[in-house]
Amino acid sequence: MYAVSPGRSRSSSHFCDIDIDADKDDHDDDDDDDVEVEFIAEGTQDAEKQQQKKANSSRISIILLDQGFTVYKWIFLVCLALNMVALSLAASGHFPYAKEKASLFSIANILALTLCRSEATLRILFYLVVKTIGKPFVPLRIKTSTTSFLQSLGGIHSSCGVSSISWLLFSLVLTIKNKNKTSTEIIVVAFVILLLLFLSSLAAFPLVRHLHHNVFERTHRFAGWTALILLWLFILLSISYDPNSQSYHFTISKMIKNQESWFTLAITILIVLPWLTVRKVAVRVSTASSHATIIKFEGGVEAGLFGRISPSPLSEWHAFGIISDGKKEHMMLAGAVGDFTRSLVSTKPNHLWVRKLHFAGLTYLVKLYKRVLLVATGSGICVFLSFLLQKRQHHVDVYLIWVAKDIETNFGKEIVELVRNYPKEKVIVHDTGVCGRPNVGEMSVEGATTWNCEVVIVTSNPQGSKDVVRACKKAKIPAFGPIWDS
Asked: N or C: which end of the chain has fewer CB within 10 A?
């Protein structure tokens, strides 16, 4: 069903930095690990502030109060419990190795949390998972359980962050108790690292992260970099210090034999690797509508991936879903919802900074299944369009429900044509400006049942995603949507 009608509407942020829907509960969704979230509403400044306050309030209520015991929380608690048991055994003298190597356990947790956020590692992991269990004979339960786990890897990241602080604090206490065996410099450096880790974790707390996202991103980034530099200094000082002579004597052999050095080297490689792919590339920017721009790049990209762009690579990065036919070019849909995205409309730059290493998210796992219903509201459509364009390049039979307001006016003819060119019997496009606001949850259940889909993947605002997932699960249909940490 196609129902597309021109009209006027206000804009707000969504999964790909734009959503066009004037309904009261249509707010932004989270950025994938680091996708920036911004809000805008037309009208006076007071109206804009009121709308943002309302959006923040709704979002925080979903994040903090209405999630239940999620897989993310389960993973967080299991990982934290394992660390706390080991720490308790070490403190009580029943785990002497951990007591002697408390700083190593702290660094090991930092390595684990880095692995769970490494775009290169996750790209490889998602690829291997799709190749391994994305076969028709693999039971659906295994696929859905794997999807749920991979989507919630942030639980390991968060838990290891808390655990690394606990282990480092334990190590610092032991060091101070035996300060005759160490130096003041080592204690000071360890204490500063502890403060930086605590500051980084505090900035990542949901209430801070989602109300002050720029504070979170910059604190997390620069505190992390500084802590890494100081960690190398801590290791060099620790392996060089001789308590008998109270002096430093560094040798390469000590460095090679030191376990902390190898763990820290792995952390450094994982952090530096994405930055080695940063390039300034030529782009073509065109106006999709008064609310959005389309940014085009050379080179095809496989379906299900996201990309990062920046006007200034050291200060800010913006992540968007990638739209590509997999051949000659790819593009991103950017809404005019922040300083950077508004500047794209006004200045239309010829070059932007990009990370050549594109990263995988929930949508990449669409490839695990045989028949999938994709449900999008507003600009959530952009993360799914590659599957429509590359229908001959993957084995997945994809169906689509897209709900948005004044679609052609707000998204432009180019985006609309990409959807229109897909087989009509596999698509439902619902323009709320023409047909009114639907019950997307009921539509999803009906669509999945009619098309006999194995699973439903939704991109919407927090409330919308929750409604679709709950409706589908009530009907015993597996469903997944962005979580607050996705």
From this structure: N
Identity of residue 11? S
CA 48, CA 64: separation in Å to the nearest integer? 24
Alpha-carbon span 137 to 33, nearest angstrom:
32
Q: Is 244 helix (H, G, I), strand (E, B) or coil?
A: coil
Q: What is the pLDDT of residue 37?
A: 29
Average pLDDT over residues 449-458: 97
Q: Rounded to whole angstroms, what are the CA distances from 356 to 11, 32, 237, 278?
A: 30, 17, 36, 6
SS3 310: strand
The token pair that represents 136 in the structure block = 């028709």
Name every residue whose Cβ is closer than 8 Å to that of residue 35 and which is 6 or more positions away in sequence. Answer: 17, 306, 318, 319, 320
Q: Are residues 243 and 163 both part of a single domain? A: yes
Are 187 and 80 in the same domain? yes
Any domain includes 294: yes
- Digit-coded pLDDT (tens) for 162-198: 999 999 999 999 999 988 889 999 999 999 999 999 9
Residue that the structure tokens 């949390």 belong to = 113
Strands 371-377 and 455-459: parallel
375: number of Cβ within 10 Å: 31
Is the same domain home to 230 and 317?
no
Whether residues 339 and 415 fall in one domain:
no
